[in-house]
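Researcher: Here's the sequence for the chain we discussed earlier.
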Amino acid sequence: MSIAPVTPHPIEGQTPTYLGKTDSKPPRPEPKALQVKQFAKGKTEHEYAQAFLNALGAQGQSELVYRDVLGEALPLSEGMFRDSRGRWKVLKNGRHEHLHVLAAALLDPDEIWLAWKTFGDKGPTVLRRRYLRVLPGEEDGIAVFELGKGGWREITVFHVTDTIAREHGFESAMAYIEAQREGVRIYVRGDGQ
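Model: Thanks. This is the structure I predict for it:
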């Protein structure tokens, strides 16, 4: 499969930010309090996944097409909460305790970034779309989608902890978040948003 270069459509009132490897990154928007309430505790993994999807408008359905702040159609399903073998990963690393933050990463992101990712030396190259949200007190959420033959598909959604960051070679959760801010910033939340 050949992937053509991507030029994001201009966003009214915003200029896309293109970053090379040596460019300094633009400042992140100021953290903003959540509008999504924390989900009830003590649910099954299926119930947590459904609560996440319902927060995005699924109304009890196990999948939906969600339109993000730029109008991009993103297919969402319980698959975001299953590993490659189909096993639930909602409880992995305490993810279920932060699902409301992860929903906010899609509902009201601080930033959306597009970046190419190559797997290994000769692996495929894919376009990744990252939704970032940092709250006051540095709690955060990341949602990642990948462009394929059928359009955007869900890859993962998770809360970054210092432990997870260190497992990936970063000194802190915020260093990990900062590393996700690469490629083209196609959206940044403004002060009035």
